[in-house]
Amino acid sequence: MVRNELGLFNKTICDWASFCREVLIEWSVKRQGKIGGKDMIVEINESKFGKRKYNVGRIVEGQWIFGGICRETKSTFLVPVEKLDKDTLLQIIKDKIEPDSIIIFDRWKACKMRDINI
């Protein structure tokens, strides 16, 4: 085991794992440009990341994330959001998805980017 070979404590390993995770998140957020393109399919969705009180029941605190993936190129975007309202999501779609992309979202029927009134 790496821990034994390097003589590291579990806390040190956990700290380094957290640090690496944070670096990867920062890198992925900064490198994100627009995804999709003419007749490419972009799937979008939202999810709440958080923890449960005493690991049971509904999630009581956390962060909403809105993201998408292009089926053809596998490129992605992730954006933390405070609200999941129409104005917020439409602005992110406009900023993150190329025109003429086909958008699939569980709340809307599939549509072309140009059909969305932004």
UniProtKB/TrEMBL annotation:
This is ISXO2-like transposase domain-containing protein. It comes from Petrolisthes cinctipes (Flat porcelain crab). InterPro entries: IS1016-like_transposase.
